[in-house]
Amino acid sequence: MSKIIEEIKKILGEDDTIKLVWLFSGNTVYIPKRVFFIKKRNRIIKEKFLNGISIKELASQYNLSERQIFRILSKNY
Fold this sequence. Notes:
Elements: H1 3-12, H2 14-24, H3 35-50, H4 55-61, H5 66-74
Helix pairs in contact: 1-2, 4-5
């Protein structure tokens, strides 16, 4: 079983996971990130940068490009 399915099973339980697989098997399912969590992540990135963490390190930690980190740092959160 795939790692993602195993994670879903831990959260939803086996029965609901089977229902999801049955309903969506073979399809791509997009699960958007919640704006709230992105804003919170961006605030944390800004705080870490102000505390001396480099842009390169932040990009690596958050699986973002350095350009994305620059954009986050230039916005007000």
